[in-house]
């Protein structure tokens, strides 16, 4: 059985694991994200002697995913100490002589969901993580989308609710989607952490209002076959029906398809891979890297 390495590189914590090409994780460890030297030393220690055939990395970002760029594999503009302009992929490539998969954490999760999760059998999906930040991964026509850089759907502009005076906390944009709706924005607006707010608190209606705006735009722009919502904030399961209902209201019947009009419960969904979406996504990138490598040698 193949052993593939997977790295879910988050801004708060790293998860490293070993899995196989069926999406089964056999072993994993997790540690807090520190400066890159300390963090990657732990990563290297974990994979040394594990005999992996490939490694997939889903990373926090922004990152460089353009294979033709001299800074491919770098983390680019993050405020995280030590990580800006850091050659993440290159550092690991110097140690492990195996094919590497490399993409954003959310593109990885979208890919994992398409291979083994809620979007299995579909050739498109959009994956949201709504946590410390908001990220959006895009898988379209059977491949991950990068475009100019890579999608940064957390920072789209949304229309502020007329009864929401909160100015938002995005350091770049103030009241962009992430600035209004990520976990830290909820905490700052309501003076309680998300998990401390009761399920019937008005915070959740407002949260659903913003999430639904972004999803409505995504549906109009990209027309994905399914929308998957993960991340800590989405542990609030009552958000799902509220979001679905706002999306239907926003679109107002314009997109005339049963997926949106009748089957929206199976169109806007939680990750099929649950809390493993990120790590399984990285695993999927590793599997893909190995397949490509083997094809290129034929
Ligand atoms: P990260 O984004 O750092 O990878 P998470 O996806 O767990 O990690 O997101 C963390 C954010 O989600 C925090 O802002 C936290 O307050 C919020 N959060 C975590 N659990 C819950 C919960 N059960 N309900 C609401 N918000 C939550
Ligand atoms: Zn922003």
TrEMBL record:
Could you list this entry's UniProt keywords, alphabetically sorted.
Magnesium, Metal-binding, Zinc
- CDD domains, A to Z: ASKHA_NBD_ROK_BsFRK-like (cd24067)
What EC number(s) would the UniProt record show? 2.7.1.4
Known PROSITE patterns for this protein? ROK (PS01125)
Q: Which reaction does it catalyse?
A: D-fructose + ATP = D-fructose 6-phosphate + ADP + H(+)
Question: Which cofactor does this sequence's record say it needs?
Answer: Mg(2+)
One Pfam family per UniProt: ROK
Its family remark reads: Belongs to the ROK (NagC/XylR) family.
**How is this protein named in the record?**
fructokinase
Q: What organism does the record attribute this protein to?
A: Paenibacillus planticolens
